[in-house]
Design a protein that fits this description.
14 helices; about 425 residues; five-stranded parallel β-sheet; alpha/beta; seven-stranded mixed β-sheet; globular; about 20% strand
């Protein structure tokens, strides 16, 4: 695992009593020990019986319990030690407090129904709480506030310990290779550079494929390549070298579009974006940011961690719509609208919504604004979809080529020769396409 700074990871497992937090915490602890990485495991029951035995279970003392623990794990992780913490921590406010204190914080919601937790309860705590022998018991007299934005959700009722452990470790290993907040700052800074050109004169040239490239494209490209190079992974940019040998054997590769929707930038429609994607050696998109600076919309996702949008300093979780194809919305290009897409929309009675930037179209489907986007051209490149791919999938959507085959991102041919289809995954789009 590559550490994104010198602090240890803080892995915080939260859930109802008897949901399986401690079992998973022990497995995660073994993972670190096996790799000779420093680790400290803290368990809610043990902490209650020792350093916090002076506290009761009323709300004020519950908050004080988590506050003390949060400060303790902050100090431990600041010394480079990984901390695995298993606490009921029923209140959102205190979980947010812990996150605000600790760098490299990973919140895991251990999901399990109260009926299953009661069945597992060998100590009979739930029964005692129901009978009034225990007061302020979480899940009975006291509520458990379901986490609003956990990094990972594991279902211990319907999935095995092995399955949930694998999910957690995959997330930790893939998201620990970068500092998400730092990359978000990088793309915002690049967006600011692009916007400096927005209302001034700049040069416009024509590339071999007849598409425009501006000073803003190149300034963004130079800045992003320079800043992302610190991670040691090759960068595949639309405006850079597409040499496969430079990235063939790399564990990860950045795939970026410094300015997606250049024509929209030139026309000042505001519908352009900057896209940063990270693909692993297998060609899977594991991290993505799509930033539209003129709209103040930033979309991002990590594989296994959900998809989010920030706008006006508000962060919301994304999910695709649940609408079918009939009377749904299909996003279409403002500048490259194909005859195939128009014919399909008319035949299926879909409302056509023009929009610039491939990345923005995909993200608008991820947030539930539309149901479908078809690009039948063979002119698009991996940089057009890599970042948005993981955002869409984490929001519940689907992206394939026109033949319903999975698209791999870090391959030799950078162009998407079979086009691509983006949907909310609520209908069989490929049966519809085969009818055309």
């Amino acid at each position: 695992m590559n550490k994104k700074n010198n602090n240890g990871l803080v892995i915080w497992l939260t859930g109802l009593p008897c949901s399986g937090k401690t079992t998973l915490a022990k497995e995660i602890e073994k993972y670190f020990i096996k790799r000779e990485m420093p680790v400290q495991r803290l368990d809610g029951d043990v902490v209650r019986e020792t350093i916090n035995k002076d506290l009761s279970y009323n709300k004020a003392d519950r908050d004080k319990n988590i506050e003390r623990v949060a400060h303790a794990i902050q100090k431990i992780s600041d010394d480079g030690i990984n901390v695995v913490s298993a606490f009921v921590s029923p209140y959102q406010r205190m979980r947010d407090f812990t996150r605000s204190l600790c760098k490299n914080y990973v919140e895991i919601y251990v999901k399990c129904s109260i009926e299953e937790c009661m069945r597992r309860d060998t100590k009979g705590m739930y029964k005692k709480a129901i009978n009034g022998e225990i007061k302020d018991f979480t899940g009975v007299q006291d509520p458990f506030e379901i986490p609003q934005n956990p990094d990972i959700v594991v279902d211990t009722e319907n999935e095995t310990v092995e399955e949930n452990f694998k999910k957690i470790i995959e997330y930790i290993e893939k998201t620990s290779v970068i500092d998400v907040d730092e990359v978000i700052k990088i793309v915002r800074d690049a967006g600011a550079i692009v916007m400096r050109f927005y209302d001034v004169e700049y040069s416009i040239e024509e590339k071999e494929n007849k598409s425009p490239v501006t000073d803003a494209d190149m300034a963004s490209h130079d800045f992003l390549v320079k800043k992302l190079s610190k991670y040691g992974y090759p960068v595949l940019s639309e405006e850079g070298d597409h040499n496969f040998m430079q990235r063939k054997n790399s564990k990860y590769v950045w795939i970026i579009d410094p300015l997606d929707g250049t024509m929209e930038f030139i026309k000042k429609t505001k519908e352009f974006s900057l896209m940063i994607g990270l693909a692993d050696k297998e060609g899977e998109s594991i991290f993505g940011i799509v930033y539209a600076p003129a709209l103040d919309e930033l979309y991002f996702a990590q594989k296994g961690g959900g998809a989010y949008m920030t706008k006006n300093d508000q962060k919301v979780k994304l999910h695709v719509s649940d609408k079918g194809i009939k009377n749904g919305k299909i996003l279409v290009s403002r500048n490259h609208l194909g005859e195939f897409e128009q014919k399909f929309a008319r035949k299926n009675n879909m409302q056509q919504v023009p929009m610039g930037s491939a990345g923005l179209k995909i993200c608008r489907i991820a947030r539930g604004d539309a149901e479908l986007y078809i690009n039948s051209s063979d002119k698009s490149g991996m940089w057009d979809i890599c970042a948005a791919d993981v955002i869409l999938k984490e929001a519940g959507g689907k992206l394939t080529d026109m033949n319903e085959k999975k698209i791999f991102h870090n391959v030799e041919n950078v162009f998407l020769m079979e086009g691509y289809v983006v949907s909310n995954n609520c209908f069989d789009i490929h049966n519809k396409l085969s009818d055309e």
